[in-house]
Specification:
Layout: H1 21-42, H2 45-51, E1 53-58, H3 59-79, H4 81-88, H5 95-118, H6 122-140, H7 153-164, H8 168-185, H9 197-216, H10 223-228, H11 230-234, H12 237-240, H13 253-267, E2 269-274
Parallel strand pairs: 1-2
Helix pairs in contact: 1-8, 3-5, 3-9, 4-5, 5-8, 8-9
């Protein structure tokens, strides 16, 4: 017996039929849940207006967010082994078990990508450097620097602001976990609470991560909304993290002035830094 072998779940054929009232109710609950999340996602105009203006960044809380992100990632890296070993283990994996483990592995990888992207500020610093000092030099002598081509700043800023109020490809990582938990509670579905154990753990870790991130800074929406849409809580952090790197990035107060202007031009946010 493999250590990841699960007990088989026996479900009567009638319970999975669309003619069965219980099945229809379960599908309705899941459908309403997904529809409500998507409706909230589409209502982005108000959040774009909230993005503009002054927003406080607390450096001490930002440091806590960085530290807890390491804990979160450590769990995800460890949790990824279970579904992989379950699929590739010695025991034969049946269709339902294979699907559960494959989806679990995909969801965990999705979270690793989301957290890594949110706490990696190299793309922000790269854009600041190339479209700041480099761009000014290139404009003085375009022929000399013909090999440098820049994108349109206004279009980039417009696209970036939309991504900061919610990115579907990132937010779906949480929605999948919530659907897994809901499926474990609904009768007649071949998903047990043990199957959804990683979904429970990730949602708990995200609740803590979300609270810590909002203590550092919150740009575009209220507490409940940013919980359901992780990108709205996490992606602003990549604009704040360069301010922590006083060894390699932050040079002096004039650099801070220049960087604040860059953040404002790109996102509409006027950062107020508390340290």
């Amino acid at each position: 017996m493999g250590i990841f072998k699960r007990k088989s779940v026996i479900i009567e054929e009638a319970s999975l039929s669309w003619d069965n009232e219980s099945t229809r109710k379960q599908a309705l609950v899941l459908g309403v849940m997904i529809a409500a999340i998507l409706i909230l996602r589409l209502a982005s105009e108000r959040r774009l207006k909230m993005l503009s203006g002054e927003h406080t960044l607390k450096m001490a809380a930002l440091n806590d967010a960085v530290l807890f992100q390491e804990v979160f990632l450590a769990y995800l890296n460890a949790a990824l082994l279970e579904p992989i070993l379950a699929i590739g283990g010695m025991e034969e994996v049946k269709g339902g078990e294979f699907a559960i483990n494959a989806l679990s592995a995909a969801a965990i990888c999705w979270w690793i990508w989301l957290l890594t992207d949110a706490f990696d500020f190299t793309d922000v610093v790269q854009f600041f450097t190339y479209h700041g000092d480099f761009r000014e030099q290139v404009e003085t002598d375009p022929k000399k620097y013909f090999f440098l081509k820049f994108s349109k700043t206004k279009e980039d800023a417009r696209s970036e602001r939309k991504s900061l109020v919610g990115t579907l490809t990132k937010d779906v990582a949480l929605w999948f976990m919530l659907v897994c938990i809901a499926a474990a509670w609904l009768p007649g579905i071949a998903v047990t609470h043990r199957d959804a154990i990683h979904a429970y753990a990730v949602v708990v870790l995200w609740a803590i991560m979300h609270h810590v991130a909002r203590k550092a800074t919150a740009w575009s929406a209220g507490y409940f909304f940013t919980f359901l849409f992780p990108s709205t809580a996490l992606m602003p952090l990549e604009y704040c993290l360069p301010l922590m790197d006083v060894a390699d990035v932050v040079e002096d107060v004039e650099w801070l002035v220049s960087y604040r202007k860059f953040v404002h031009d790109r996102t509409g946010v006027d950062l107020i830094i508390e340290t």
